[in-house]
Amino acid sequence: MSEHTDDLVAVTVTVNGMTHSRRIEPRMLLSDFLRHGLGLTGTHVGCEHGVCGACTISVGGRSARSCLMLAVMAEGLEIETIEGQGTPEALSRIQKAFQDHHGLQCGFCTPGMVMAIADLLAHHPLETDDQIREGLSGNLCRCTGYINIIAAVRELARERGPLT
Amino acid sequence: MKPARFDYVRPDSVDQALDLLARYGGDAKIIAGGQSLMPMMNFRLVKPAVLVDINRIPGLEVIEDQGERVRMGALARHRMTATDSMIASRIPVLHDAMHHVAHMTVRNRGTFCGSVCHADPAAEIPMIVLMLDGQVEVASASRRRVLPAAEFLVGSLVTALEADEMVTGITIGMSDPQSGWAFEEFSRRHGDFALAAVAVTLGVDADGAIRNPRIGMTGVGETAMRMRGVEALIDGCHPDEDMLGEVSEWLNDNLVPNTDIHAGADYRRHLSGVLAGRAIRAAYARARTLRGKQDE
Ligand SMILES: Cc1cc2nc3c(=O)[nH]c(=O)nc-3n(C[C@H](O)[C@H](O)[C@H](O)COP(=O)(O)OP(=O)(O)OC[C@H]3O[C@@H](n4cnc5c(N)ncnc54)[C@H](O)[C@@H]3O)c2cc1C
Ligand code: FES
Ligand code: FES
């Protein structure tokens, strides 16, 4: 059992393949740890109560709200963030689909959308637009009206083919 | 906002968790999926002095087929319950209900038992647990007890859990394979909490009359509810316009929903009647089909 009664606790997590160790307050949110502790500001923070999805990352291969996890809870886990996707020179496949379909305007929701879509593509059927919409229902976008985001996912799902 | 300060402990076993609860009692809070607790801590609506993280305790992330009943361990995630093939075939009403519990990302972490411990008056899982004779396994360092769901769920965000206790698992009854089922919900956005939701299972007899109906509702009272009044009203009847009219009237006379920013009490009462009518019809149609297959 690990018990922490002093102010700072040690935490080690692997983010996009790199292992980081820090001493932090137990109350530090994983979203703040990524942004302020590691300088990975691609993960956005909209609401801090789980509603908007802007802070979506991947924990152990499944999407998670980083605002609803403490950094200490991620001890020893593998995390992926938007920074692990692609670079401006070499976009990831999901990012490229967003570019092709004009799936973003201000871009605030986009990191969370992309990370949620990575989970959808890895684990969900996405045979119909309804399934795509339902899969994205936890991610809010105030700009696009979703139509172009859906189109991007439709193409990605077609490319992927049926889940095996 | 950010959570207030607390000490963080991560027990490796249920016994360790129970010792911690015995030591800290009301100052401690268990965190499971964190999908309800973290928002409340971020808003500082809840300020535990000690947070007990049960996520690394082995053996709790399970769904067990016990024959007549199914048992969800304390870390059975919503995703597991929603995609479990035994639940889909043996308790289809729960399978359908899970479809409405939050969004993919929240379902990856949130737990079945956490939802019942949180006791949100608009949550789907407490309703199903009430409806299907749920039994809540409760443990403290000094005793174990099993509470029927109706005793466990006390009020809005209030349960019968003592400060030194945790829930180790919940069992519910499997549905009769001959029974029809239906789940109807209205919410503002798919995966958001219900403004009103109705779950129904029922059988039909040789004359086509409803038998052994079970009806649950959520979003329309202080807690999720099993609607024994409506069950008595429809038991032995055929679901025609008159009967469904009586159901609406009964709900209108008996429900006391909250008014909040999402919907007024009158609207929720109206929704309950409409959704109950739809759910009873759909469950009845399924039960007829199942009975037809059996009679062939
Ligand atoms: C955007 C969003 C939408 C949502 N929509 C819905 C919805 O439509 N329907 C719905 O039902 N829920 C919804 N939820 C809530 C979600 O289902 C939560 O997962 C659930 O309510 C709580 O489960 P948890 O494991 O996350 O519990 P936690 O948040 O970890 O804990 C909740 C409470 O239960 C206690 N607790 C947890 N486990 C135990 C245990 N084993 N023993 C004793 N006490 C325990 C905690 O101390 C705390 O008080 C939503 C959440 C979010 C963020
Ligand atoms: S910031 Fe996490 S869901 Fe909005
Ligand atoms: S692109 Fe602006 S919020 Fe989605």
From TrEMBL, chain A:
Species lineage: Bacteria, Pseudomonadati, Pseudomonadota, Alphaproteobacteria, Rhodobacterales
Keyword vocabulary terms for this entry: 2Fe-2S, Iron, Iron-sulfur, Metal-binding, Oxidoreductase
Record carries keyword Metal-binding: yes
A molecular-function term among this protein's GO annotations: oxidoreductase activity
Domain of life: Bacteria
InterPro entries xrefs: 2Fe-2S-bd (IPR002888), 2Fe-2S-bd_dom_sf (IPR036884), 2Fe-2S_ferredoxin-like_sf (IPR036010), 2Fe-2S_ferredoxin-type (IPR001041), 2Fe2S_fd_BS (IPR006058), Beta-grasp_dom_sf (IPR012675), Diverse_Oxidoreductases (IPR051452)
Name listed for the protein in its UniProt record: 2Fe-2S iron-sulfur cluster binding domain-containing protein
Residue span(s) of domain 2Fe-2S ferredoxin-type: 9-85
Gene3D superfamilies documented for this protein: 3.10.20.30, [2Fe-2S]-binding domain
Organism in which the protein naturally occurs: Frigidibacter albus
TrEMBL record, chain B:
Keyword check for Flavoprotein: yes
Pfam families in the record: CO_deh_flav_C, FAD_binding_5
SUPFAM superfamilies: CO dehydrogenase flavoprotein C-terminal domain-like, FAD-binding/transporter-associated domain-like
Official protein name in the record: Xanthine dehydrogenase family protein subunit M
Keywords noted in UniProt: FAD, Flavoprotein, Oxidoreductase
Lineage: Bacteria, Pseudomonadati, Pseudomonadota, Alphaproteobacteria, Rhodobacterales
PROSITE patterns given in the database record: FAD_PCMH
Any one GO molecular function term: oxidoreductase activity
Annotated FAD-binding PCMH-type domain residues: 1-177
